[in-house]
Amino acid sequence: MELIILKSKIHTVKVTEANVAYNGSITIDADLLDAAGIKKYEQVYINNAVSGSRIMTYVIPGKRGSGEVCMNGGAALHAKVGDTVHILAFIHLSEEVAETYQPTLVFTEGNNQIKSVEKYNY
């Protein structure tokens, strides 16, 4: 049996743009994606800590070091510029591997820059 387990989380970033005219997705600073191990076009969940909205979309890499977190297309209807969001990616793992797997957690500070990268240790 396989379980769906948290792979990584970009914790507490601010939305820098909301572009409803775009085809869809979320654009995220490539440095944040690399730190979290999230690949371009990978499915992610976006939890809006301000409105409570939760959506699923895919990732497009943004400019490195920009701090960019842009909600595109329909996703732009679920967050406003300045909203705090959490971005989560999941992975399918066997029960045996899931027992010891530790997701990556990326913490940010001002302008969505990386503060620290840690492994969940619960």
Automatic annotation (TrEMBL):
Is synthesized initially as an inactive proenzyme, which is activated by self-cleavage at a specific serine bond to produce a beta-subunit with a hydroxyl group at its C-terminus and an alpha-subunit with a pyruvoyl group at its N-terminus. Its EC number is 4.1.1.11. GO terms for biological process: alanine biosynthetic process; pantothenate biosynthetic process. The active site is at S25 (schiff-base intermediate with substrate), Y58 (proton donor). The modification Pyruvic acid (Ser) is found at S25. Binds 1 pyruvoyl group covalently per subunit. Substrate binds at T57, G73, G74, A75. GO terms for cellular component: cytosol. It is found in: Cytoplasm. The keyword Lyase applies. It is an enzyme of class 4 (lyase). It catalyses: L-aspartate + H(+) = beta-alanine + CO2. It holds the Pfam family Asp_decarbox. GO terms for molecular function: aspartate 1-decarboxylase activity. It comes from the Bacteria. Its cofactor is pyruvate. InterPro entries: Asp_de-COase-like_dom_sf, Asp_decarbox. Catalyzes the pyruvoyl-dependent decarboxylation of aspartate to produce beta-alanine. Heterooctamer of four alpha and four beta subunits. Belongs to the PanD family. This is Aspartate 1-decarboxylase. It comes from Sphingobacterium hungaricum.
